[in-house]
Amino acid sequence: MIASYFPILLFLAVATGLGIALMSLGLLFGTRKTNDEKISAYECGFEAFDDAHMKFDVRFYLVAILFIIFDLEIAFLFPWSVVLEELGGFGLVSMFIFLFLLVIGFIYEWKKGALEWE
Amino acid sequence: MFGWSELVPAFPEILVLSMACVVLLVGLFTDKKKGGFIVFLSVITMMFAAILTLKDHVAGVEFTKTVIFNGTFIRDEFGDMLKVVVYLLMISVFFYAKQYLRQHDNLQGEYFALLLFATLGIMVMISGHNFIALYLGLELLALSSYALVAYNRNDLNGNEAAMKYFILGALASGMLLYGMSLIYGAVGTLQINEISQAIAGQNNDMFLVLGLIFVIVGIGFKLGAAPFHMWVPDVYEGAPTATTLFIASAPKIAAFALAVRILGQSLDVLMIHWQSMLATLAIVSIIVGNLFALQQTNLKRLFAYSTISHIGFMLLGLVGGAEGIAASMFYIIVYTIMAVGGFGMIVLLSNKGMEADQIADFKGLNQRSGWYAFLMLLLVASMAGFPPLIGFFSKLYVLKAVIDQGHIILAAVAVIFAVIGAFYYLKIIKVMYFEESETDQAIDASFDVKTVLSINALAQLGLLVLLPVLFQYCIRVTGSL
Question: How many CB atoms are located within 10 Å of the residue B371 CB?
Fold first, then answer.
C-alpha cells in the first residue's frame, strides 16, 4: 500500500535536489553586478509600494475577461476530447456550436478594438 | 438518447439566438447614422418567431404538449400564448427604441442584440420545465437588462440605476437559488412535474415551506412587488426611456410565467401557504404603489409606482384559484400593452437633449397635438381602469375571481386603493387638456413610430372586440397546464 506512494517520494527528492543544485550552481559560478534597479522589488507595470486607492486602468479587466473566456473554452475542450468517442456526432456538433458562438464573440471584440492596447 | 427531431419544438428559441448573433455582427459593420437595417432585422426575427410558434396551432390539428431536452423544456399552449404576446411587445419596443436612440445619436447594434438576448431569456423562462432551465433564462434576461440600463455610459443616473439593479438583482437571484436548493434538498429533483408528484400530501413539510419562502422573495424581487420594490422607481427613472419601456413590459410576462411554473405547477400542493404570502404581497403592493405614486412629478417614477400597484393586482389574481390564474394572465398581458404605450409616449415627446419625463412636459399636449393627447388619454385611463377601456375589464376579472374565492376584504382594499390611484392618472389628463403648453415645439417622429404608438393606444379600445375570445384563451391555456 505505502509502496505505491514511492514514485511521489522519488519525485519530491529529485525536485528538491534539482532545485537546490541549480540554485547553488548559479550562486557559485554566476557573475553578480547589483544596482538599485536590479535589487528593488518588482511588480509588473506598477510601483511596488504605493497607495492602494490608485486609479486602475480598466483595460486590465478587459484583458482578464477576454482571457478567462478562452481559458474556460480550453477547460471545456479537454474533457470533451477525452470522451468524444462516446458522445458521437451529437457531442461533436454541440461543441462546434459552442465554438461558433465563441467565434462570434471573438469577431466582435476584435472589430471593437478590445485587443489593441493603444 | 437525443434525436435531432427534439430540436423542432425549440425552433423559435434557436431562431432568436441565431438572429441575436447576426444582429451583433451586422451592428459592427453598420454606420451609427444608419442602423435602420438592424431594427428591420430585429422586427423580422420577431415576426418569424411568431410564425414558428403559431404554425403548430393551425385550426383542426390537435396541439400536444411536448417536453424535450431530458424534460428541461416544454412547449405548451400556455407558453406559446405568452410568447406570442412577447413577440408583439418586442416589435413595439424595437420601434420605440429606434426612435429614442436616433434622438440621442446612439443607435448601435449592441442595443438590439441585447434586446434579442433578453427576449431569448424570456422565452426560456416561459418554456422552462426545470428549475435550472428557469434560472438560466432568468439570468440571461437579467444580465442583458443590466447592460441595457447602463447603455449610456456617460450618464451618471443610468450608471447608478444599473448598479442598484445589478446588486439587488443578484441578491434576488441568490434568494431564488437558495429556495430552489432547499426544495431540491427536500424532494431530490428539479423537474417541475416530478416535484409536484413527489410532494403530494406533504403540505406541511417545514423544509419545503422554508424553500417556498425564499422562492417567493426571489420572484417578488423580480416582479418588483412591495416590500421588494425598492429598485423599481430608481431603475425606471435612471434607465434610458427605451430600456425602461422594455423592463416594464416583456420581463413582467416572464416573471408571471416563472411564478406560475414554480408555484402553480410544481409547488401546487403548498397552495395554502403561497396563497397567503402572495395575498400579503399583493395588498402591500397595491397600497404602496398607489400611495407613493401620488407625490411623483417625474412620469417615469410615477409609472414605476403604478407598475408596483399593477403587479399587486396581478398577484391578487393568483390568489383566486384556477379562474384567478387566467384572470391574472389576462391582467399582465393587458398591463404590458398599456405600459409599453405609456413609455412610448414619453419617447415620442422627447427630443435631443431633453427627456419628456416630467408631468409638466405634458402640459397642454392637446394644443400641440390633439391626436397624441387623445392616445395618452386612452392609455392613462386604461391604466386607471375606467370603463369601457380594456384596463377596466382586466381589473374586473381579477376582482371577480378573488371574490368568488371568498376574499371579499382583499377585493375591497384593492378597489379602494385603485380609486385613490385614479387621482394621479387624472392629474396627467388634467395637465394635458386644461393647462397651457410651455413650448410649441412640433412632435417629431418617423411615420412607423407614430403608427405603432397609435395602434398601441387604440388597442385599449380595439381589444374590447376580442375581449371574450382573449379571456377564453387565457382560461383554456391556464386550464391545460
Answer: 14
**Residue B298 has what DSSP assignment?**
B
Dist CA B287 CA B413 (whole Å): 8
Any idea what DSSP says for residue B358?
B
Contact B311, B252 (CB under 8 A): yes
Whether B125 and B138 have beta carbons less than 8 Å apart is answered as yes
Please tell me the predicted confidence (pLDDT) of residue A46.
65
Q: What is the pLDDT of residues B209-228, one digit of tens each?
A: 899 999 999 999 999 998 99
Cβ contacts below 8 Å, chain A against chain B, sum to 14
CB atoms within 10 A of CB B481: 18
pLDDT digits (tens, 9 = 90+) for B85-106: 999 999 999 999 999 998 888 8
Average pLDDT, chain B: 90
The whole-number pLDDT of residue B186 equals: 87
B435 pLDDT above the threshold of 90: no
Is residue B68 within a helix (H) or strand (E), and if so which, with residue range? strand B66-68
pLDDT, residue B448, reads 87
Confidence of residue A45 (pLDDT cuts 50, 70, 90): low
Fold designation for A52-118: Methane Monooxygenase Hydroxylase; Chain G, domain 1 (1.20.58)
Q: Where are the domains of chain A?
A: 52-118
Which chain B residue has its CA at the smallest distance from A109's CA?
B28
pLDDT at B392: 93
Taking a C-beta distance cutoff of 8 angstroms, is the pair B389, B458 a contact? Answer: no
CA dist B221 and B171 (Å) reads: 9
Higher pLDDT, B351 or B182: B182
What single-letter DSSP state applies at residue B167? H
| pTM to 2 decimal places | 0.89
Domain boundaries, chain B: 4-479
Can you tell me the distance from the alpha carbon of A12 to that of B361, in angstroms, rounded to the nearest whole number?
77
Q: State the CB neighbour count (10 A cutoff) for residue B351.
A: 15
The pLDDT, as a whole number, for residue B2 is 64
Best mutation target among B7, B13, B16, B21 (most A Cβ atoms within 10 Å) is B21
Cα–Cα distance measured from residue B151 to residue B63, given in angstroms and rounded to the nearest whole number: 41
Q: What pairs with residue B467 in β-bridges?
A: none
d(CA B352, CA B195): 53
- Facing residue for A104 by CB, picked from B1, B2, B25: B25
Task: Tell me the shortest Cα–Cα distance from B7 to chain A, in angstroms.
Answer: 12
Determine the residue among A92, A94, A104 to mutate to test chain B binding: the one whose Cβ has the most chain B Cβ atoms within 10 Å: A104
Q: How far is CA B79 from CA B60, B257, B258, B326, in A?
A: 20, 8, 11, 13
